[in-house]
Design goal:
Helices cover 37% and strands 13% of the residues. The chain is built from twelve helices and ten strands.
Length: 341
């Protein structure tokens, strides 16, 4: 069946500019970290991607090792591009990353020039595109000189393989140095992708201030705390949840203190006539320094629930004060060790 895009997809879509750049992103973008790999049902993932586009989501965020298995999310997204979205390529923002493990040996992980550029070539081939719109250094690699990692991003731009460059999970200090190196080469740092949620508030300490001063955008990932900030775990652990499958979610996160906080936050969401997930997304977007946020989705219904958060983004001072009673760091920052290495 031939896909026909919704002609009204931009009528209610909302966007923010990434820092001082020309890059504009939707308030909610679709991340293909989980649920879009070779072990998932292709037609379900396809339906989610097309529904997202029909609702004005033009940014699709990938990485070399998204799956499982590694690479399969990019392969599947490439198939959707060829079958459905190819004629809309100029409307899309497609991003990929490299930095975490991808293949065996010393050049299958980290921030070396060899790994980053080889990985980007493979990502382009898997998706069947000539370039990505954003290419990220997926994590800091202390044993590799930052000049080499940033130099690889510069080379990717000069080769025409990416339009913009970004970093993910970098500390404020490394972010400043990365921006300095890139600026000296005439390639601005456009965006930073950190984890951020009501149970993982580390970016409020210094990173948001740093990005604001540098004119760099902030695209928050994991706004739902790997699923903890949903109604999924209010009454136990569902069989097919991340916690039950021990995937990206650690069962230790489901301690009583976190569950008590989540239940209290859920009660606040109910008074706002939102699901907990919707309030969690809206809360991340309350700060104008946050360009947007990334969500995943196992189904069209789950995607619609997340996107409907945009129907109520306003908070009263009383609501924010009440949320602050329970929105505390809950030990769910899986990226802290890499950031602080």
């Amino acid at each position: 069946m031939t896909y026909l895009a919704n002609p009204a997809r931009y009528d209610t879509a909302r966007f923010r500019r990434s820092g001082h750049s020309g890059l504009v992103l939707p308030l909610v973008s679709l991340g293909l970290w989980q649920n879009f790999g070779g072990t998932d049902v292709f037609e379900v993932g396809r339906a989610v991607v097309l529904r997202a586009f029909d609702r004005g989501v033009i940014h699709f965020d990938l990485a070399n090792n998204y799956g499982p298995p590694y690479g399969s999310a990019e392969e599947n997204f490439g198939a959707i591009l060829r079958k459905d979205l190819g004629t809309h390529r100029n409307e899309l923002i497609i991003s990929s990353k490299a930095g975490w493990d991808m293949w065996a040996g010393p050049y299958g992980v980290g921030g070396s020039r060899k790994y980053l550029l080889a990985s980007l070539d493979e990502s382009l081939a898997r998706m069947g595109v000539d370039y990505v719109d954003i290419f990220y250094s997926h994590r800091p690699t202390p044993e590799v000189p930052l000049e080499e990692t940033m130099g690889a991003l510069v080379q990717a731009v000069r080769q025409g393989k990416t339009l913009y460059v970004g970093i993910s999970s970098y500390s404020p200090e490394r972010t400043r140095e990365a921006a300095r190196i890139l600026k000296a080469e005439g390639v601005p740092l456009v965006i930073h992708q950190p984890s951020y949620s009501m149970l993982n508030r580390w970016i409020e300490q210094d990173l948001l201030k740093t990005l604001d001063e540098l004119g760099v955008g902030c695209l928050a990932f994991s706004p739902l705390g790997q699923g903890l900030l949903t109604d999924k775990y209010l009454n136990g652990v569902p069989q097919q949840s991340r916690a039950a499958l021990e995937a990206s979610f650690q069962k230790g996160h489901l301690n009583q203190e976190n569950l008590n906080r989540v239940r209290a936050l859920n009660a606040i969401a109910t008074t706002r006539r939102q699901s907990l997930a919707q309030m969690a997304i809206a809360w991340v977007l309350r700060d104008p320094r946050v360009t947007g946020t990334l969500v995943g989705a196992r189904s069209v219904a789950q995607l619609d629930n997340s996107l409907d958060a945009l129907n109520n983004l306003e908070f009263t001072c009383a609501e924010l004060k009440e949320i602050d009673r329970y929105a505390r760091n809950g030990g769910i920052d899986l990226w802290k060790e890499a950031r602080e290495a």
